[in-house]
Amino acid sequence: MAAALFVLLVPDPTSGRAAARDRLADIVAVVMALGYGLVMMAIGDATAAGAAIPWPVDVLLGVACAIALMFRRRRPLAVLLAVLPFGAVAVTATGPILVALFTAAIRYRARLLFALGAAHVGTGVIYFLLQNDAPFSVWVDVVFRSVTAAAAIGWGQFVRAYRRLTAALRSHAARLQAEQQLRVDQARLTERARIAREMHDVLAHRMSLITLHAGALEVRADARPDEIAIAAGAIRSSAHEALEELRAVVGVADRPEPPQPGLADVPDLVVSAREAGMRVEFTDEVAGDEPPVVLGRTVYRIAQEALTNARKHGSGASAAIRLTGRVGGGLRIVVVNPHGGTSGRPGRLGGMGLVGIRERVALAGGRMTCGPEGGEYRLEVWLPWPT
Question: What is the mean pLDDT of residues 155-179?
Protein backbone atom coordinates (compact mmCIF):
# COMPACT_ATOMS: atom_id res chain seq x y z
CA MET A 1 0.00 0.00 0.00
CA ALA A 2 2.76 2.44 0.96
CA ALA A 3 4.75 1.54 -2.16
CA ALA A 4 1.72 2.15 -4.38
CA LEU A 5 1.11 5.56 -2.79
CA PHE A 6 4.79 6.38 -3.21
CA VAL A 7 4.64 5.64 -6.94
CA LEU A 8 1.46 7.67 -7.38
CA LEU A 9 2.52 10.66 -5.33
CA VAL A 10 6.08 10.71 -6.63
CA PRO A 11 6.09 9.68 -10.31
CA ASP A 12 9.32 9.31 -12.20
CA PRO A 13 9.85 12.61 -14.07
CA THR A 14 11.81 10.83 -16.83
CA SER A 15 8.94 8.55 -17.76
CA GLY A 16 7.10 9.10 -21.02
CA ARG A 17 3.81 8.85 -19.12
CA ALA A 18 4.84 11.37 -16.47
CA ALA A 19 2.11 13.87 -17.37
CA ALA A 20 -0.73 11.36 -16.99
CA ARG A 21 0.77 10.01 -13.79
CA ASP A 22 1.09 13.54 -12.43
CA ARG A 23 -2.62 14.15 -12.97
CA LEU A 24 -3.48 10.86 -11.30
CA ALA A 25 -1.15 11.70 -8.41
CA ASP A 26 -2.86 15.07 -7.95
CA ILE A 27 -6.25 13.39 -7.76
CA VAL A 28 -4.97 10.87 -5.23
CA ALA A 29 -3.41 13.70 -3.19
CA VAL A 30 -6.73 15.62 -3.08
CA VAL A 31 -8.69 12.52 -2.07
CA MET A 32 -6.16 11.55 0.60
CA ALA A 33 -6.04 15.10 1.99
CA LEU A 34 -9.83 15.34 2.22
CA GLY A 35 -10.13 11.88 3.72
CA TYR A 36 -7.54 12.65 6.38
CA GLY A 37 -9.17 16.00 7.18
CA LEU A 38 -12.64 14.50 7.53
CA VAL A 39 -11.35 11.75 9.81
CA MET A 40 -9.59 14.33 12.00
CA MET A 41 -12.76 16.41 12.10
CA ALA A 42 -14.77 13.45 13.35
CA ILE A 43 -12.14 12.39 15.89
CA GLY A 44 -11.67 15.91 17.22
CA ASP A 45 -15.41 16.44 17.61
CA ALA A 46 -15.33 19.53 15.40
CA THR A 47 -19.04 19.07 14.81
CA ALA A 48 -19.85 19.95 18.45
CA ALA A 49 -21.43 23.25 19.41
CA GLY A 50 -18.24 24.56 20.96
CA ALA A 51 -16.16 24.24 17.76
CA ALA A 52 -14.30 27.27 16.43
CA ILE A 53 -16.48 27.44 13.30
CA PRO A 54 -19.56 25.49 12.12
CA TRP A 55 -18.64 22.12 10.64
CA PRO A 56 -20.09 22.90 7.16
CA VAL A 57 -17.74 25.88 6.96
CA ASP A 58 -14.93 23.66 8.21
CA VAL A 59 -15.59 21.17 5.41
CA LEU A 60 -15.88 23.95 2.82
CA LEU A 61 -12.50 25.39 3.82
CA GLY A 62 -10.96 21.91 3.70
CA VAL A 63 -12.30 21.34 0.17
CA ALA A 64 -10.93 24.71 -0.95
CA CYS A 65 -7.49 23.86 0.49
CA ALA A 66 -7.58 20.44 -1.19
CA ILE A 67 -8.38 22.00 -4.56
CA ALA A 68 -5.38 24.31 -4.09
CA LEU A 69 -3.20 21.18 -4.09
CA MET A 70 -3.71 20.92 -7.85
CA PHE A 71 -1.14 23.77 -8.13
CA ARG A 72 1.35 22.26 -5.69
CA ARG A 73 3.82 21.11 -8.38
CA ARG A 74 4.34 24.56 -9.91
CA ARG A 75 4.19 26.59 -6.67
CA PRO A 76 4.76 24.21 -3.75
CA LEU A 77 5.86 26.86 -1.25
CA ALA A 78 3.14 29.33 -2.26
CA VAL A 79 0.44 26.67 -1.91
CA LEU A 80 1.77 25.69 1.53
CA LEU A 81 1.80 29.29 2.73
CA ALA A 82 -1.72 29.78 1.38
CA VAL A 83 -3.30 26.77 3.13
CA LEU A 84 -1.23 26.90 6.33
CA PRO A 85 -3.31 29.63 8.14
CA PHE A 86 -6.54 27.65 7.69
CA GLY A 87 -5.21 25.08 10.14
CA ALA A 88 -6.05 27.54 12.92
CA VAL A 89 -9.80 27.39 12.24
CA ALA A 90 -10.56 24.25 10.18
CA VAL A 91 -9.61 20.71 11.13
CA THR A 92 -10.41 19.50 7.61
CA ALA A 93 -7.61 21.73 6.29
CA THR A 94 -4.97 19.72 8.18
CA GLY A 95 -4.97 17.03 5.46
CA PRO A 96 -4.20 19.45 2.60
CA ILE A 97 -1.61 21.18 4.81
CA LEU A 98 0.28 17.92 5.35
CA VAL A 99 0.24 17.08 1.62
CA ALA A 100 1.47 20.59 0.80
CA LEU A 101 4.17 20.23 3.44
CA PHE A 102 5.26 16.92 1.91
CA THR A 103 5.41 18.47 -1.57
CA ALA A 104 7.47 21.42 -0.35
CA ALA A 105 9.83 19.01 1.42
CA ILE A 106 10.72 17.51 -1.97
CA ARG A 107 11.92 20.90 -3.25
CA TYR A 108 13.35 22.78 -0.26
CA ARG A 109 15.79 22.26 2.59
CA ALA A 110 14.83 20.87 5.96
CA ARG A 111 15.50 24.08 7.93
CA LEU A 112 12.74 26.04 6.15
CA LEU A 113 10.40 23.07 6.28
CA PHE A 114 10.75 22.52 10.01
CA ALA A 115 9.99 26.22 10.53
CA LEU A 116 6.81 25.83 8.51
CA GLY A 117 6.04 22.61 10.37
CA ALA A 118 6.37 24.51 13.65
CA ALA A 119 3.95 27.10 12.29
CA HIS A 120 1.52 24.27 11.51
CA VAL A 121 1.80 23.08 15.13
CA GLY A 122 1.24 26.66 16.30
CA THR A 123 -2.05 26.86 14.39
CA GLY A 124 -3.15 23.87 16.43
CA VAL A 125 -2.69 25.90 19.59
CA ILE A 126 -4.73 28.73 18.09
CA TYR A 127 -7.48 26.27 17.13
CA PHE A 128 -7.56 25.00 20.73
CA LEU A 129 -7.91 28.51 22.08
CA LEU A 130 -10.79 29.31 19.72
CA GLN A 131 -12.89 26.39 21.03
CA ASN A 132 -15.36 27.01 23.83
CA ASP A 133 -15.17 23.54 25.32
CA ALA A 134 -12.26 21.57 23.80
CA PRO A 135 -12.69 17.78 24.12
CA PHE A 136 -8.90 17.18 24.37
CA SER A 137 -6.00 18.89 26.05
CA VAL A 138 -3.87 21.26 23.96
CA TRP A 139 -0.90 18.88 24.28
CA VAL A 140 -2.77 16.17 22.40
CA ASP A 141 -3.17 18.42 19.39
CA VAL A 142 0.41 19.69 19.66
CA VAL A 143 1.89 16.20 19.83
CA PHE A 144 -0.31 14.81 17.05
CA ARG A 145 0.41 17.70 14.67
CA SER A 146 4.13 17.53 15.49
CA VAL A 147 4.29 13.82 14.66
CA THR A 148 2.33 14.11 11.41
CA ALA A 149 4.27 17.21 10.28
CA ALA A 150 7.60 15.50 11.00
CA ALA A 151 6.44 12.43 9.07
CA ALA A 152 5.43 14.54 6.05
CA ILE A 153 8.75 16.43 6.08
CA GLY A 154 10.77 13.25 6.55
CA TRP A 155 8.99 11.50 3.71
CA GLY A 156 9.45 14.50 1.44
CA GLN A 157 13.16 14.72 2.24
CA PHE A 158 13.50 11.01 1.53
CA VAL A 159 11.86 11.46 -1.87
CA ARG A 160 14.18 14.40 -2.57
CA ALA A 161 17.24 12.31 -1.75
CA TYR A 162 15.85 9.39 -3.79
CA ARG A 163 15.37 11.58 -6.86
CA ARG A 164 18.85 13.01 -6.57
CA LEU A 165 20.31 9.53 -6.20
CA THR A 166 18.43 8.10 -9.19
CA ALA A 167 19.41 11.11 -11.31
CA ALA A 168 23.04 10.65 -10.34
CA LEU A 169 22.87 6.91 -11.08
CA ARG A 170 21.27 7.53 -14.49
CA SER A 171 23.97 10.08 -15.32
CA HIS A 172 26.70 7.70 -14.14
CA ALA A 173 25.24 4.80 -16.14
CA ALA A 174 25.00 6.97 -19.27
CA ARG A 175 28.61 8.09 -18.81
CA LEU A 176 29.82 4.51 -18.34
CA GLN A 177 27.93 3.40 -21.43
CA ALA A 178 29.45 6.22 -23.46
CA GLU A 179 32.93 5.36 -22.19
CA GLN A 180 32.42 1.69 -22.99
CA GLN A 181 31.28 2.53 -26.51
CA LEU A 182 34.30 4.79 -26.89
CA ARG A 183 36.61 1.97 -25.82
CA VAL A 184 34.95 -0.42 -28.25
CA ASP A 185 35.24 2.09 -31.10
CA GLN A 186 38.87 2.74 -30.22
CA ALA A 187 39.63 -0.97 -30.12
CA ARG A 188 37.94 -1.41 -33.50
CA LEU A 189 39.93 1.41 -35.06
CA THR A 190 43.15 0.14 -33.52
CA GLU A 191 42.51 -3.32 -34.89
CA ARG A 192 41.79 -1.96 -38.34
CA ALA A 193 44.98 0.07 -38.29
CA ARG A 194 46.98 -2.97 -37.19
CA ILE A 195 45.46 -5.09 -39.95
CA ALA A 196 46.34 -2.41 -42.49
CA ARG A 197 49.93 -2.23 -41.24
CA GLU A 198 50.23 -6.01 -41.43
CA MET A 199 49.12 -5.99 -45.06
CA HIS A 200 51.41 -3.15 -46.06
CA ASP A 201 54.50 -5.26 -46.66
CA VAL A 202 52.55 -8.04 -48.35
CA LEU A 203 51.01 -5.57 -50.78
CA ALA A 204 54.40 -4.02 -51.47
CA HIS A 205 55.80 -7.50 -52.10
CA ARG A 206 53.07 -8.28 -54.64
CA MET A 207 53.67 -5.04 -56.48
CA SER A 208 57.42 -5.68 -56.58
CA LEU A 209 56.79 -9.10 -58.16
CA ILE A 210 54.58 -7.51 -60.79
CA THR A 211 57.27 -4.94 -61.54
CA LEU A 212 59.94 -7.62 -61.71
CA HIS A 213 58.09 -9.85 -64.20
CA ALA A 214 56.95 -6.90 -66.28
CA GLY A 215 60.52 -5.66 -66.46
CA ALA A 216 61.70 -9.09 -67.55
CA LEU A 217 59.17 -9.10 -70.39
CA GLU A 218 60.27 -5.61 -71.40
CA VAL A 219 64.00 -6.38 -71.67
CA ARG A 220 63.61 -9.84 -73.20
CA ALA A 221 62.09 -9.23 -76.55
CA ASP A 222 63.26 -12.69 -77.75
CA ALA A 223 61.49 -14.62 -74.99
CA ARG A 224 59.78 -17.84 -76.00
CA PRO A 225 55.94 -18.04 -75.86
CA ASP A 226 56.03 -20.41 -72.91
CA GLU A 227 58.27 -18.04 -70.99
CA ILE A 228 55.95 -15.14 -71.78
CA ALA A 229 52.99 -17.21 -70.60
CA ILE A 230 54.72 -18.05 -67.32
CA ALA A 231 55.60 -14.40 -66.69
CA ALA A 232 52.09 -13.24 -67.61
CA GLY A 233 50.61 -15.83 -65.26
CA ALA A 234 52.85 -14.65 -62.46
CA ILE A 235 51.83 -11.05 -63.13
CA ARG A 236 48.15 -11.99 -63.17
CA SER A 237 48.42 -13.98 -59.92
CA SER A 238 50.39 -11.26 -58.16
CA ALA A 239 47.99 -8.56 -59.38
CA HIS A 240 44.99 -10.55 -58.19
CA GLU A 241 46.46 -11.06 -54.73
CA ALA A 242 47.53 -7.41 -54.58
CA LEU A 243 44.00 -6.33 -55.34
CA GLU A 244 42.69 -8.56 -52.56
CA GLU A 245 45.12 -6.92 -50.18
CA LEU A 246 44.24 -3.46 -51.44
CA ARG A 247 40.52 -3.96 -50.78
CA ALA A 248 41.24 -4.36 -47.08
CA VAL A 249 43.91 -1.69 -46.73
CA VAL A 250 42.51 1.17 -48.83
CA GLY A 251 41.49 4.22 -46.88
CA VAL A 252 43.55 3.36 -43.79
CA ALA A 253 46.74 5.19 -42.90
CA ASP A 254 49.53 2.72 -42.21
CA ARG A 255 53.26 2.38 -41.88
CA PRO A 256 55.53 -0.52 -42.91
CA GLU A 257 56.13 -3.33 -40.46
CA PRO A 258 58.08 -6.60 -40.62
CA PRO A 259 56.47 -9.52 -42.52
CA GLN A 260 53.53 -10.93 -40.57
CA PRO A 261 52.91 -14.60 -39.63
CA GLY A 262 50.32 -16.80 -41.30
CA LEU A 263 48.63 -20.18 -41.04
CA ALA A 264 51.93 -22.05 -41.23
CA ASP A 265 53.09 -20.23 -38.09
CA VAL A 266 50.17 -21.39 -35.91
CA PRO A 267 52.07 -24.54 -34.73
CA ASP A 268 54.95 -22.31 -33.59
CA LEU A 269 52.41 -20.18 -31.72
CA VAL A 270 51.12 -23.30 -29.96
CA VAL A 271 54.67 -24.31 -29.05
CA SER A 272 55.34 -20.87 -27.59
CA ALA A 273 52.17 -21.13 -25.48
CA ARG A 274 53.23 -24.54 -24.20
CA GLU A 275 56.67 -23.22 -23.32
CA ALA A 276 54.93 -20.45 -21.34
CA GLY A 277 53.24 -23.11 -19.18
CA MET A 278 49.90 -23.60 -20.95
CA ARG A 279 48.44 -26.99 -21.84
CA VAL A 280 47.38 -26.64 -25.46
CA GLU A 281 45.80 -29.32 -27.64
CA PHE A 282 46.24 -28.50 -31.31
CA THR A 283 44.46 -30.24 -34.20
CA ASP A 284 45.21 -29.20 -37.78
CA GLU A 285 42.76 -30.67 -40.31
CA VAL A 286 43.20 -28.07 -43.05
CA ALA A 287 43.26 -29.82 -46.41
CA GLY A 288 44.72 -28.58 -49.65
CA ASP A 289 47.25 -25.89 -50.45
CA GLU A 290 48.29 -22.94 -48.34
CA PRO A 291 45.40 -20.46 -47.99
CA PRO A 292 45.71 -16.84 -49.17
CA VAL A 293 48.03 -14.62 -47.17
CA VAL A 294 45.22 -12.49 -45.71
CA LEU A 295 43.25 -15.56 -44.61
CA GLY A 296 46.30 -17.22 -43.06
CA ARG A 297 47.24 -14.07 -41.18
CA THR A 298 43.68 -13.68 -39.89
CA VAL A 299 43.69 -17.27 -38.61
CA TYR A 300 47.00 -16.71 -36.85
CA ARG A 301 45.83 -13.51 -35.13
CA ILE A 302 42.58 -15.14 -34.01
CA ALA A 303 44.44 -18.10 -32.54
CA GLN A 304 46.91 -15.75 -30.87
CA GLU A 305 44.18 -13.63 -29.25
CA ALA A 306 42.19 -16.71 -28.21
CA LEU A 307 45.21 -18.21 -26.43
CA THR A 308 45.85 -14.88 -24.72
CA ASN A 309 42.25 -14.74 -23.51
CA ALA A 310 42.41 -18.34 -22.27
CA ARG A 311 45.60 -17.63 -20.32
CA LYS A 312 44.38 -14.35 -18.80
CA HIS A 313 40.68 -14.96 -18.22
CA GLY A 314 40.10 -18.72 -18.19
CA SER A 315 39.79 -20.75 -15.00
CA GLY A 316 42.73 -22.96 -16.02
CA ALA A 317 45.86 -22.45 -18.12
CA SER A 318 44.73 -24.78 -20.88
CA ALA A 319 43.02 -24.61 -24.25
CA ALA A 320 42.17 -26.69 -27.28
CA ILE A 321 42.52 -25.36 -30.84
CA ARG A 322 41.11 -27.07 -33.87
CA LEU A 323 41.54 -25.92 -37.47
CA THR A 324 39.46 -27.45 -40.26
CA GLY A 325 38.76 -26.38 -43.80
CA ARG A 326 39.44 -26.68 -47.49
CA VAL A 327 39.45 -24.55 -50.61
CA GLY A 328 35.93 -23.45 -51.50
CA GLY A 329 34.46 -24.72 -48.21
CA GLY A 330 35.83 -22.15 -45.82
CA LEU A 331 38.15 -22.41 -42.84
CA ARG A 332 36.88 -22.97 -39.28
CA ILE A 333 38.71 -22.16 -36.05
CA VAL A 334 37.41 -23.54 -32.74
CA VAL A 335 39.09 -22.61 -29.47
CA VAL A 336 37.82 -24.06 -26.17
CA ASN A 337 39.15 -23.35 -22.69
CA PRO A 338 37.87 -24.01 -19.13
CA HIS A 339 35.53 -21.34 -17.80
CA GLY A 340 34.36 -21.18 -14.19
CA GLY A 341 32.21 -18.02 -14.53
CA THR A 342 28.43 -17.82 -14.85
CA SER A 343 28.07 -14.82 -17.11
CA GLY A 344 26.57 -15.54 -20.48
CA ARG A 345 27.50 -12.28 -22.09
CA PRO A 346 29.81 -12.60 -25.08
CA GLY A 347 33.04 -10.73 -24.61
CA ARG A 348 33.03 -10.96 -20.84
CA LEU A 349 36.18 -13.04 -20.72
CA GLY A 350 38.18 -11.42 -23.47
CA GLY A 351 37.28 -7.76 -23.07
CA MET A 352 38.53 -5.65 -25.98
CA GLY A 353 40.35 -8.67 -27.44
CA LEU A 354 37.11 -10.17 -28.67
CA VAL A 355 36.21 -6.82 -30.22
CA GLY A 356 39.39 -7.06 -32.28
CA ILE A 357 38.64 -10.65 -33.31
CA ARG A 358 35.10 -9.71 -34.28
CA GLU A 359 36.42 -6.83 -36.37
CA ARG A 360 38.87 -9.09 -38.18
CA VAL A 361 36.18 -11.66 -38.88
CA ALA A 362 33.80 -8.99 -40.17
CA LEU A 363 36.45 -7.55 -42.51
CA ALA A 364 37.15 -11.05 -43.82
CA GLY A 365 33.44 -11.70 -44.42
CA GLY A 366 33.21 -14.51 -41.88
CA ARG A 367 31.06 -15.44 -38.89
CA MET A 368 31.87 -15.61 -35.18
CA THR A 369 30.18 -17.02 -32.08
CA CYS A 370 31.52 -17.06 -28.53
CA GLY A 371 30.33 -17.58 -24.99
CA PRO A 372 30.24 -19.98 -22.02
CA GLU A 373 29.03 -23.48 -22.82
CA GLY A 374 28.93 -26.34 -20.33
CA GLY A 375 31.67 -25.07 -18.03
CA GLU A 376 33.86 -24.05 -20.96
CA TYR A 377 34.32 -20.91 -23.00
CA ARG A 378 33.97 -21.64 -26.70
CA LEU A 379 35.09 -19.40 -29.56
CA GLU A 380 34.14 -20.53 -33.06
CA VAL A 381 34.99 -18.62 -36.24
CA TRP A 382 34.26 -19.44 -39.85
CA LEU A 383 36.19 -17.65 -42.61
CA PRO A 384 35.58 -17.88 -46.36
CA TRP A 385 38.27 -19.63 -48.45
CA PRO A 386 37.58 -18.84 -52.10
CA THR A 387 38.77 -21.08 -54.87
Answer: 86
